[in-house]
Write a structure and sequence with these properties.
about 55% helix; five-stranded parallel beta sheet; single chain; binds magnesium ion; alpha/beta; binds adenosine-5'-diphosphate
Length: about 210
């Protein structure tokens, strides 16, 4: 591995859990340690990916189509943006990454894990985040936060019933399987407290 390679940090969790809230402080933390930061998000992060994001959020489609489009956007992002940035020594911070497919498409939509693992091996080729913050929040609280924040719900926000319970459970299962890189945050706590937990993890893992 290139010794100058940058670090890759991801933020995960259902809508309303607090990812966007903490992104600026995270970027600032990395910048203050003298690293260049590339901030991105999924789906999106490239011109093509942002176009696919609009379709994914607002256009009705089959579950398999959704899964494949997400991985298409991810292929573009990993190959054109994330890998080159890490190789240049930049740190990359992403609002969601492959863990989200296991949470939403496997947990939420019921896509077979084997399909996602195949796509992950193909598209991501072993690129795992160095550190993943999972903002773990009960869906009822999350929805109250989102309703306060935004007007028009997207295709995912419109899902009712147990959808977000299943997404949350799948995220937690993923965190258990990949325990060494995951930090699960109790996202119902006040933002200031969460930031202190995040900062502790950052200092411990990237001294
Ligand atoms: N720890 C927190 N406690 C209370 N409200 C919060 C907390 N973190 C975020 N919020 C609020 O919840 C809403 C959704 O947060 P946001 O960071 O946009 O979530 P996400 O990006 O994960 O969807 C925002 O209005 C934000 O101000
Ligand atoms: Mg957000």
């Amino acid at each position: 591995m290139n010794p100058m390679r940058g670090r890759f940090i991801t933020l995960e969790g259902i809508d309303g859990a607090g990812k966007s809230t903490h992104m600026p402080s995270l970027v600032q933390w990395v910048t203050q340690r003298g690293h260049q930061v590339l901030q991105t998000r999924e789906p999106g992060g490239t011109e093509l990916g942002e176009a696919l994001r609009q379709l994914l959020l607002h256009q009705d489609m089959q579950v398999d189509t959704e899964t494949l489009l997400l991985f298409a956007a991810r292929a573009e992002l990993v190959q054109a943006v994330i890998r080159p940035a890490l190789e240049r020594g930049q740190w990359v911070v992403s609002d969601r990454f492959t863990d989200a497919s296991f949470a939403y498409q496997q947990g939420g939509r019921g896509v077979a894990r084997a399909h996602l693992e195949f796509l992950e091996n193909w598209v991501v080729e072993g690129l795992q985040p160095d550190l993943t913050f999972l903002f773990d929040l009960d869906p009822v609280t999350a929805q109250q936060r989102v309703q306060r924040a935004s007007a028009k719900p997207d295709r995912f926000e419109q899902q009712g019933g147990t959808f977000f319970e299943r997404v949350r459970a799948a995220y937690l299962e993923r965190a258990t399987r990949h325990a060494s890189r995951f930090c699960v945050l109790p996202a119902a706590q006040p933002a200031t407290h969460l930031w202190s937990l995040i900062e502790q993890q950052l200092s411990r893992r990237f001294p």
